[in-house]
């Protein structure tokens, strides 16, 4: 006797968002009702598992770019058969933010009218690869790229003591301050910490040159 899988759609009929094709890229998340700043819009991954950062599955899943580093240091891997906040597209002028605490959530940062696409700021950090992630978000203020690139020069100008960031040379500091101001202006200040964490990690790893 074969058992038919239950249609997944019925599980989501009460969700305040829907998942459909976006003009930005692929599938996106759309509001089915208005949201106010501070409201949780959707769980990052309604079905997920958490593994250690060094787990082979975490490393493999990182290539899909939908993993999320949780605040407890583990990696959240969404079950991509179940739609969720992991489908949110990036925008340089987003209306929501992704927070990694607990199981991960997408939270409204500015009023979202019904029908509008829910967008977040990916905050990706690249290394010596400034053109890695071109952006087609369509925002008037689009940066042209989703990534913030760190170069060897940036790593050289970073000061780390005892595994902690203690400062940067003037040129890099200016760059970081400028990016931080931009992030604040779009309600994404939580992204700043990932830049510093990446700089510290790059500074501490053995240099191959
Ligand atoms: Zn953009």
Kindly describe this structure.
This protein has helices at residues 56-62, 152-156, 170-185, 192-204; strands at residues 17-21, 27-31, 40-43, 48-51, 68-69, 75-78, 89-90, 96-99, 105-108, 117-120, 125-127, 148-150, 158-161, 164-168. The chain is an alpha+beta fold. It has two domains: 15-120, Beta-clip-like (Beta Complex), CATH 2.170.270; 123-209, no CATH class. The strands form five sheets. A four-stranded mixed beta sheet has the order 1-2-10-7, with no helix packed on it. The chain has a three-stranded antiparallel beta sheet with strand order 3-9-8, with no helix packed on it. The chain is globular. The model has no long low-confidence stretch (mean pLDDT 88). Zinc ion binds at residues 92, 135, 137, 139, 142-143.
């Amino acid at each position: 006797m074969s058992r038919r899988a239950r249609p997944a759609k019925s599980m989501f009929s009460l969700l305040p968002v829907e998942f459909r094709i976006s003009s930005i890229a692929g599938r996106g998340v759309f509001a089915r009702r208005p949201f106010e700043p501070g409201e949780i819009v959707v769980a990052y991954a309604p079905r997920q598992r958490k593994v250690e950062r060094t787990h082979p599955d975490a490393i493999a899943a990182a290539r899909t770019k939908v993993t999320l580093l949780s605040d407890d240091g583990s990696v959240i891997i969404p079950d991509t058969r179940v739609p969720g906040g992991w489908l949110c597209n990036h925008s340089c002028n987003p209306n929501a933010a992704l927070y990694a605490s607990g199981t991960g959530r997408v939270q409204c940062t500015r009023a979202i009218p019904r029908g509008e696409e829910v967008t977040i700021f990916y905050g990706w950090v690249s290394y010596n690869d400034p053109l890695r992630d071109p952006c087609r978000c369509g925002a008037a203020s689009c940066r042209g790229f989703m990534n913030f690139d760190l170069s060897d020069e940036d790593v050289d100008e970073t000061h780390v003591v005892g595994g902690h960031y203690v400062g940067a040379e003037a040129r890099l500091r200016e760059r970081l301050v400028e990016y931080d101001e931009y992030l604040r202006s779009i309600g994404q200040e939580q992204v700043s910490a990932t830049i510093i964490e990446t700089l510290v990690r790059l500074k501490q790893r053995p240099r191959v040159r």
